[in-house]
Amino acid sequence: MTKAELIDDCLFCKIIRGEIPSYTVFENDDVKAFLDISQVNEGHVLMVPKKHLTNFFDYSAEDASRFMQCVPEIAKAIKASDPRIQAMNITSNNGEIAGQVVMHSHIHFIPRWEGDGIKFFTRNNADQYDEKKYQEVCDRIKAQF
After folding, report:
1. Among the options 44, 52, 104, 106, which is catalytic?
2. Can you tell which superkingdom this protein's organism belongs to (predicted)?
3. 53 is a domain residue
4. Could you list the residue range(s) of the whole structural domain that residue 110 is in?
């Protein structure tokens, strides 16, 4: 990636350019991975593409291939770094309503271990769906391919 593919006022573009310091754990031509300043759990890492992409809705197939291929390697390195790590949340918030704060695509690697106190909440709405409703939703999405 080239510096021309970055933008001036983006926090993560500034980190990629070295204008803001980071604790970089991995870097190649396509991605940079560094410690998240919040450290939800010790070893919390962010992986960002070195091309400014707002979120996954902006990705081409080539962007995804170049960026996503690094996920397993980074996850394995984080897990191997601390014997407490038993699992990991690998997440991305895409868009402000989904909780994205920095509008430069990024993936969170949040190490997890028994008793770490982190709670991720979801809800189960299965009781609001029947076969017809599931099929309607499925067909609506399938039609977009």
Report:
1. 106
2. Bacteria
3. yes
4. 3-115
Alpha-carbon gap, residue 102 to 106, rounded angstroms: 8
Cα–Cα distance between 46 and 74 in angstroms, integer? 10
CATH number at residue 86: 3.30.428.10
Cα of 54 vs its chain's centroid, Å: 12
Residue 42 counted as domain residue = yes
> Residue 105 is which amino acid?
S
For 29, the token pair is 């031509």
Q: Structurally, how many domains does the chain consist of? A: 1
3-state DSSP assignment of residue 111: strand
Which residue stretches of the chain have pLDDT < 50?
none
Please report whether residue 140 resides in a domain: no
pTM of the model: 0.91
